[in-house]
Structure formats: C-alpha cells, structure tokens
Write a structure and sequence with these properties.
This protein is 67% helix and 0% strand. The protein has 13 helices and no strands. Helix 2 packs across helix 7 (142-170) and helix 7 (142-170) crosses helix 8.
C-alpha cells in the first residue's frame, strides 16, 4: 500500500497488512476492531458499516477503564468544580445564576472531555496499531472510518448533555430550555466540531500518552476563553471580541441561548457562523493532514 504524506490518497486494493502487538488500554484490542471493520466492509450500506465500526469502538471504550472514567465521571466532576469557581464571580451582569452558568458550562465540558479528549486518544491508538490502515483495504470509506470511530463518544456526549438538562430542571429547579431546537443545534454543531478537531489533533500526536499534552491547548483555551469558567459577557470588550472567535465560543453561545434564552438574533447569527466556519476549517484540515500511517 502506498499513501501520501497526509494519508488522504493511496492504493486501497492491497491486503498485505500485518498488525502489531496490542498495547494496554484503548489500543489493546486492535485486532477486534480490524475484524469488525472487515465485517463492515462486507455490508451493503453505509449505515451497516457505521454500525459495525461503532459496536467495535464501543467495546474498546468499555474495556478501557481510563477512557471510560474520563468520559463518564470527569464531566460531572467538572460541573462541581465550575460551581465552586463561579460562586466567586458576580454573574448578575451576565444575566445568569451560578446554577445556570455551571450547568451550561457542563455541556461544554462534555464536548471537550467526552468527544475531543477521548477521540484524540482513540484515533491515535487505532492508527498506531494499524487498525485504520487495515480498514482502508476494504470498501469502508475514509469518512466512514472516522465517523464510526467517533460514534460511541458522540452518543455518550448527547446522553450526558440530556442528563445535565434533566438534572438542572428537576434537581436544581432551573427553567426548561427556552429554545430546545437551538440547544440541540448547538450541541450537534459542537459534537461535529470537537470530533473534527480531535482528528486534526490526532494528526500531530505521536502516541496515546502524548495525547494528554496535545489536547491541553484546546482544553485550556476553551475553558479560559469560551465562557466555561468565566462568561464572555463579563470580559473586557476587546478581550471578549477576541474570545468570540475561539472554536467553542459560538457553540456555547448557542447552547446558553437555547437553554436560558435572551440572546438577540444578530448575536445568534454571528455565533452560528463562527461555529460553522470552524467546522469547515477543521474538516479541511482533516482532509489535508490526517495521517493513516503509524508515526513511528
């Protein structure tokens, strides 16, 4: 098999691929994923292939205790930490209470931790164990491989966001979402954006261990500048205008407007355009730079 430097082209007819020994954690059952991918390749529909890849990836996620802890418990712990930090801030100027700010920020934490952080490790592990390379020898399209790998994280993110909304309404006496359609759209765009950015980050990540470092910039920038720990509305005007251009800021604006209401149409349009531009840039970057070959 021959591929270009960015791995977006190459002969897909070759089948002489040998897999390396499985490593601990997410990459430990690479052979199982390869088998599932082979089964997916014999499917007649894209939906069937995606379902097979998703089932294999879900099995790997369940077996990886570290990834499962990050996906299930860290967002909840993050909401608790957010509540403590937000109590020190006067949120009256932003038009929201501590509970409202913490729960909407919790959705942002889910997007970062469950989708972005988890998927960077997953993409790197599958690449280094030659799983992605084996899958490309079948009829599964490149976009199906990436989407199938992301399916469990995406489903888990939607489920946790739903739990946060239900918990906020039932346990914290928050109002029901003012614009459910806008809230769902914001989460959907955020999931797609974080998944695409995860693939971009994976392209520059050499090992699963180094993913803890390469994912840190996205985490810190989003937490500090996209309104998770400190609402953008309370920032100085010049700083706020810069932070509004960050990848997750537009998504958070849509999420908060969908749950809490009160946003103007012009603000929502700008937030939606910013988020969609980041999605388009991320998809282009994946097509240009994503690596299918191990970085050894």
């Amino acid at each position: 098999m021959t591929t270009t430097a960015n791995g977006t082209s190459g002969t897909r007819g070759s089948t002489g691929v040998t897999g390396g020994a499985g490593t601990a954690g997410a990459a430990g059952t690479a052979g199982a994923t390869g088998t599932a991918g082979g089964g997916a390749g014999r499917g007649t529909t894209a939906a069937g292939r995606l379902a097979s890849l998703g089932r294999a990836e879900l099995t790997l996620l369940i077996r990886n205790r570290t990834a499962l802890f990050v996906a299930l418990l860290l967002p909840a712990l993050g909401v608790v930490g957010l509540s403590s930090s937000l109590e020190q801030i006067d949120l009256g100027k932003a038009g929201m209470s501590v509970a409202e700010a913490a729960m909407t920020s919790g959705i942002g934490m889910v997007l970062i931790l469950v989708v972005h952080l988890n998927l960077v490790s997953a993409y790197v592990a599958r690449r280094e164990e030659l799983v992605l390379k084996r899958l490309r020898t079948g009829e599964v399209a490149d976009r199906e491989i990436l989407a199938g790998t992301a399916l469990p994280a995406v489903g888990l993110a939607f489920a946790q966001c739903a739990v946060l909304v239900a918990g906020g309404v039932v346990l914290l006496d928050l109002d029901a979402p003012a614009r459910p359609d806008l809230l769902i759209a914001g989460v959907a765009v955020g999931v797609v954006l974080m998944a695409a950015l995860a693939a971009v980050t994976a392209a520059f990540t050499r090992t699963v261990e180094s993913a803890q470092i390469t994912t840190m910039p996205m985490f810190l920038v989003s937490v500090a500048g996209s309104g998770l720990f400190f609402p953008v509305e309370l920032m100085p005007e010049k700083m706020a205008s810069i932070c509004e251009l960050l990848p997750l800021t537009g998504v958070m604006t849509l999420v908060r407007a969908g749950w809490l209401g009160g946003a103007e149409s012009g603000e929502l349009t700008g937030a939606a355009l910013t988020a969609l531009v980041w999605v388009a840039l991320s998809v282009f970057a994946v097509q240009r730079w994503f690596r299918w070959e191990p970085r050894r």
